[in-house]
Amino acid sequence: MEGGCCSTSTMTSTENKRKRRNHQQQNKPYRGIRMRKWGKWVAEIREPNKRSRIWLGSYTTPVAAARAYDTAVFYLRGPSARLNFPELILEEDDLHEISTASIRKKATEVGARVDAIQTALHQSESNSESRLSEKPDLNKFPEGSEED
């Protein structure tokens, strides 16, 4: 009887962990990033063998934050690191010992570049959608269809 009580509480805690993990996966599409209350995505990573964190920046898109994280984790942990986008990391870079400041700088440069590209793509998509959704003025003659 006592074993049954403990297994029930264990099942409840494992179910809670599973629910929490599923909820986190839905809200957090990539490793090393999180979303602020106001919608910005931030990236940070823990330094190896230390309790301190390296701040990698705040971005408008989750992809930009994830790319910044990937850059930092690659420089910290090498080619064996678990990356969000393993196909996008250039392994040509020299992985010699570099400082935390250098890692932060490289990661924020990558994140800012990706953020600018993602934001431009999103704006161009929304502009084309708004042009398509605009209703034509039925009181105007169509342009370019002049007949003799």
UniProtKB/TrEMBL annotation:
Keywords: DNA-binding, Ethylene signaling pathway, Nucleus, Transcription, Transcription regulation. Residues 1-29, 121-148 are annotated as: Disordered. InterPro entries: AP2/ERF_dom, AP2/ERF_dom_sf, DNA-bd_dom_sf. Residues 121-130 have a biased composition (Polar residues). GO terms for biological process: ethylene-activated signaling pathway. Residues 29-86 form the AP2/ERF domain. Pfam families: AP2. GO terms for cellular component: nucleus. It is found in: Nucleus. Residues 131-140 have a biased composition (Basic and acidic residues). SUPFAM superfamilies: DNA-binding domain (SSF54171). GO terms for molecular function: DNA binding; DNA-binding transcription factor activity. PANTHER family: ETHYLENE-RESPONSIVE TRANSCRIPTION FACTOR RAP2-1-RELATED. Belongs to the AP2/ERF transcription factor family. ERF subfamily. Probably acts as a transcriptional activator. Binds to the GCC-box pathogenesis-related promoter element. May be involved in the regulation of gene expression by stress factors and by components of stress signal transduction pathways. This is AP2/ERF domain-containing protein. It comes from Rubroshorea leprosula.
